[in-house]
Amino acid sequence: MKTGINNLPNCAENLFGMKSNTSPGSEKKLQPDNKKPVISDEELASRIIKGDSWAGNELMQRYWEKAFNISFSMCDWDKEEAKDLTQEAFLKVIRNIKKFKGKSSFYTWFYRIVINTCLDARKKKNRWKKIFSGWGLKNKGNDEPDIRPMEEIPDTGVLANPMTSLRGKMLNIEVQKALSSLSEKQQTAFKLKVYHEMTVPEIAQVMNTAQGTIKTHIFRATQYLRKNLKQWDN
Amino acid sequence: MKSCPDYQEILLLDIHKELDRKTRLKWEDHLKSCQLCLKERTDLQEMIGNIRNSAPSDRLLPEESQHLLSSIRQNIDKELSIPKWRQWIQSAFENRVHALTAACLIVLVFGWFGTRIMENPLTVQTASNLTPVLNSEEKLLMQDYKVINNLDLLEEMEALEKLVQVVDKQEYGSCLIDKRFFVQKEISPNEYKI
Question: Is the CB of A157 inside 8 Å of chain B's CB atoms?
Fold first, then answer.
């Protein structure tokens, strides 16, 4: 997945004026470049449980971008919604940090929260849509997927001429329409694989599902898209 | 999909870069001799590439990034400064199942106590509470009952009264049982003579 331009300084100290706060007993590993001690995610988690706000900010620095990327792809490329979902996901992480038992890696647990937050938001949105569509407040039929208009979709990151950009947007709309016909799990597995280039074992851990099931989801989504996007060949 | 049925799964694994080395060698060998699978592989790779490239950019402007980070930071600081008892209440409310279960239990407990109180109302025993509550008819009957119960006593009292009258008359002259009873007539000494 194309990553955004990160104009932020690398070190949390420069951004927030905070001093690194490493206790003698903490797990540390040295970075070869700047030889600064790096605290592990698990150590940060245990500090957050004790109420260390610096640890909370450090965690945010490490994961905010990835959390935003995932939210952005999961909420149909709506930046504002992605920002809200990113904030909500971080809040949930802080509130439930005590539940992290260390059975999986921290980032797997974190991404699981982000994805579940996005899926919950989508379910809530669909529920409201069903309620209001029954009252005739929406002109669209219930079967038609709610795809954002082309003008609202941000441009692709690839520098291209307007025609290519338009083609990209049109293809994106078709992809969203096709994916909306699939189940939530198939959509999520496909998006994590294609847009975020996660491996099948990683996706299986994040979605808390068996690897074989994840492969089935991805294969079915790929075959379905292959069938529905045939007109886009060449 | 237009590919050999035996190699469909391998084709998809190859597209998504999940093939292990051993299977890859076998697959590459097959591709050398099968044009159908080779074409399908090319088409699928192109499709996946187009889908990936058509995804909108997730870049945030610097001010957007700053704003998002500061919002997240504020929320984190706010969350960490909440006292533990409030965090517990918040988590209880967030977990709807637990909250509903707790609410049902509270309703059951209070309902049970309430029904017990309704069946056995608590009363403070006073003198008026000792006698049962009666309506007017029952009160009249009660009075009659008292009179009947005390009838013998009343008859005896009446007889005693008459006796007193007779005795006093002999000793003190006629006297009525009224306030004049207490006014003694002066008796001459000769009256006692038989």
Answer: yes
H/E element holding A104? none
- H or E element, residue B192: none
ipTM for the whole complex: 0.71
Which B residues in the span 9-68 are in contact with A, Cβ-Cβ below 8 Å? 9, 12-13, 15-16, 18, 43-44, 46-48, 50-60, 62, 64-66, 68
Take residue B89 and report the two structure tokens written for it: 């209440």
Q: How far is B51 from chain A (nearest CA, A)?
A: 7
Q: Say how far apart CA B143 and CA B131 lie, in whole Å.
A: 14
Query: Does residue A57 contact residue A47 with C-beta atoms inside 8 Å?
Result: no
pTM score above 0.80: no
Contacts of B81 in chain A (CB under 8 A): 53
What are the tens digits of pLDDT across the range B25-39?
A: 999 999 999 999 999
Helix (H, G, I), strand (E, B) or coil at A154: coil
How many CB atoms within 10 Å of residue A85?
Answer: 24
Cα separation, A193 vs A187, whole angstroms: 10
